[in-house]
Amino acid sequence: MKKLQGAGLRGQSAGQTSLSTVEQEGSLRYLGYSIEDLAKHASFEEVAYLLLLGELPNKKNLEEFERELAGLRNMPESLVTVVESIPADAHPMEVVRTIISYMGVIESEKSFDEQLQVTKRLLGVTTTAIVYWYKYSHEGVRINQETGEKSVAAHFLKLLRQEDIEELHKKTLDVSLTLYAEHEFNASTFTGRVCASTLSDLHSCLTAAVGSLRGPLHGGANEEAMKMLEEIQSVDQVKEFVDQKLENKEKIMGFGHAVYSVKDPRSDIIKDFSAELSKDHKDKLLHDAAVIMEAHLKEKKGLFPNTDFFHAPAYHYLGIPTKLFTPLFAIARIIGWSAHAYEQRSNNRIIRPSADYIGPEDRSWVDIESR
Ligand SMILES: CC(C)(COP(=O)(O)OP(=O)(O)OC[C@H]1O[C@@H](n2cnc3c(N)ncnc32)[C@H](O)[C@@H]1OP(=O)(O)O)[C@@H](O)C(=O)NCCC(=O)NCCS
Questions:
Q1: Closest CA to 273 of 336, 179, 165
Q2: Number of other residues whose CB lies within 10 A of the CB of residue 17
Q3: Which atom of ligand 1 is found nearest the CA of 309?
Q4: What value, to the nearest 5°, has the Cα angle with vertex 118 and ends 76 and 192?
Q5: Domain limits of the chain?
Q6: In ligand 1, which atom is closest to the CA atom of 257?
Q7: pLDDT (0 to 100) of residue 7
Q8: Regarding the domain delimited by 33-215+322-346, which CATH topology (the fold level of the hierarchy) does it fall under?
Q9: Cα–Cα 20 to 30 A to 350, which of 49, 193, 316, 319?
């Protein structure tokens, strides 16, 4: 089928932002700071503060922010009831969508002055609630919601694994959340901004954004990449496996990007963590196969991995079930979505583009009996 002209609005500016720059040749900056610097030096909480408040925090600001976030993690009783009623076979992004939407019912945003508080609350409670749902529906366990961990990453892992978490694991997830936190006018953020432009409440903006992130062409790609890597039995199979997919005109999940044309700067960062975690892991093959797949697709099709691809083995090595991969992306992106909603609200005009009509010419009305 012929591609529609201007399909996907590729390359067209749909507005302004001061939050991040995504450049075709492979550069990503949040408010001017490179993703490489942020991943190396900042914690996810520092990055969240930067995106939500516009500047990096000083030590005191950060400690206060972390303390506040940690105090907002527990689920209200009625949310526990809701989450316990969601079956194990629900799509995990439906669960995230429900959590955020339900929080909008019981702790609604009464005025835009509350927006920062809403974001902090949603970051904390969604993290707890998604793990709570997973453990309850899959293992029949009602987890203790308190972990005593300071960071979102460590809290998530400890809730999930119910054990002390080693530093490399905490660091990997922390960096991953930074990588996923913000990405300009991607599909889910744009969805959220359109909703924000109607002056709707923040819970609605984020619920809408989650709906867009759910799709396999967006957030769902990390899960799909994992399922694909799990099909591979040995490194010798990789090239043939990829060639077969290409021959069948199948999309290789975790490869390609709508804006980047040579590389996704986030990929090498998470790839390094995946490599480190793969050492001595019984499923080392996942990372090794991924590395071969990367080289082969580059050579054959000029395709490069996006951030989702090496997230798949990395998350697996952290003991995260595949089902929770996309919800983690959503948890991190609560920050970017919120920051964009604030930005939209601060200088708003309803987003209402026009369309080029390609339907039939003007026609005369035909009565129903004569059709
Ligand atoms: C991300 C994505 C939706 C971008 O789509 P897009 O902007 O339409 O892609 P492009 O226009 O750059 O595609 C150029 C060509 O490469 C092909 N291509 C792009 N990504 C591909 C992939 N992952 N596997 C196989 N071929 C791919 C396209 O089919 C297209 O071929 P064509 O010109 O013969 O039709 C697309 O690359 C994709 O579906 N990737 C897999 C899903 C994924 O990983 N999503 C997460 C994104 S962060």
A1: 179
A2: 18
A3: 44
A4: 120
A5: 33-215+322-346, 221-317
A6: 1
A7: 81
A8: Citrate Synthase; domain 1 (1.10.580)
A9: 49
Domain boundaries 221-317, corresponding CATH code: 1.10.230.10
Whether 11 has a pLDDT exceeding 90, the answer reads no
Does position 5 have pLDDT exceeding 80, yes or no? no
Give the pTM.
0.95
Annotated catalytic residue, options 169, 257, 287, 296 = 257
- Identify the burial level of 37 via C-beta atoms within 10 angstroms of its C-beta, where 0-12 means exposed, 13-18 middle and 19 or more buried: exposed
Residue with tokens 């509350």: 114
Please tell me the distance between residue 226's alpha carbon and the centre of ligand 1 in angstroms: 18
- Using a 6 Å CB cutoff, which residues line ligand 1? 10, 217-218, 221, 251-258, 303, 306, 308
Question: Of 169, 308, 316, 340, which one is the catalytic site residue?
Answer: 308
Q: Are 47 and 38 in contact (CB under 8 A)?
A: yes
> Ligand 1: which of 2, 242, 255 to mutate, most ligand atoms within 8 Å of CB?
255
Record the tokens describing residue 280, joined without a space: 């001595």
Task: Give the tens place of pLDDT for each residue, 91-125.
Answer: 999 999 999 999 999 999 999 999 999 999 999 99
Q: Do domains 33-215+322-346 and 221-317 have the same CATH topology?
A: no
pLDDT of res. 218: 86
Atom 3 of ligand 1: nearest residue by CA position: 217
For residue 33, with 0-12 CB atoms within 10 Å meaning exposed, 13-18 middle and 19 or more buried, which class applies? middle
Whether 183 is catalytic is: no
